């Protein structure tokens, strides 16, 4: 038996407050003791009371709700430090919020693309979406068929990798000096096609790098094989005109699914997105 020692300072607890030991609190929240302590160390979680003699931590119902909020914020992909920054008002919270909005927007685009592809129906979907700021490796080319365009992108991506760049998960795309109003194949030799491979930001200097700002765009997402590409361009510009949309930049034709992105993908299972930056709606 450990002999009783009188405490120099008694821990004061209000009579109407139920406190939980760290073991009890860990079970209530479904988190390990070490995780709870790390949350405390980063400034997010403060126990209701800490015994000044033993150092034991005691938690209350407010602490339970704080951990529940922490778990909810984790679903946004925030780190422990970022969550703590939100609640201690340290760091650039505005930048953090914008980053998460961009991430959510990207997830929505990807889910929409998966949905239209796995429905396996020729389909066209119009929407307004936000595209993030993007760094691209860009080269001009002249092509005469969709298949040739596909190989152009393949070799530019290869060149991009050999130059030391890491390819971004953002979709590759092309622009045309005639905005694809006559399809994706140049209507004359004077039409300039530019091919863009999004890359991760780096310190590498290269004359082929282009920085594109974040922008809101009008979008047409479509599913089908190469035969629908001409129809995509027609439907897109007809809808732009019908909605009286004011383009604020060159249209982009995005190839979301291609053989070199997955050789097991059937040519009938491609999906594409055509977008144009817009002014004020």
What does this structure look like?
The protein is of the alpha+beta class. It folds into two domains: 20-88, Multidrug-efflux Transporter Regulator, Chain: A, Domain 2 (Orthogonal Bundle); 98-277, Alpha-Beta Barrel (Multidrug-efflux Transporter 1 Regulator Bmrr, Chain A), CATH 3.20.80.10. 35% of the residues lie in helices and 22% in strands. It has helices at residues 22-29, 33-41, 61-74, 80-88, 93-118, 146-162, 229-242; strands at 20-21, 49-50, 57-59, 123-131, 134-141, 172-176, 193-199, 209-212, 215-224, 252-255, 270-277. Strands 4-9-11-10-6-7-5-8 form an eight-stranded antiparallel β-sheet, with helices on both faces. It is elongated, with a radius of gyration of 27 Å. The N and C termini lie far apart (77 Å).
Oligomer: single chain
> What is the fold-level CATH name, i.e. the topology of the largest domain?
Multidrug-efflux Transporter 1 Regulator Bmrr, Chain A
Order of helices and strands: EHHEEHHHEEHEEEEHEE
The total tally of domains equals 2
Strand content: 15-25%
Number of helices: 7
| Helix coverage percent | 25-40%
Overall geometry = elongated
Termini separation comes to 77 Å
The CATH C-level class name of the largest domain: Alpha Beta
The overall pLDDT average reads: 83
Secondary-structure class: alpha+beta
Question: Based on DSSP secondary structure assignment, what is the total number of beta strands?
Answer: 11
Which parts are unreliable, with pLDDT below 50 for 5 consecutive residues or more? 1-9
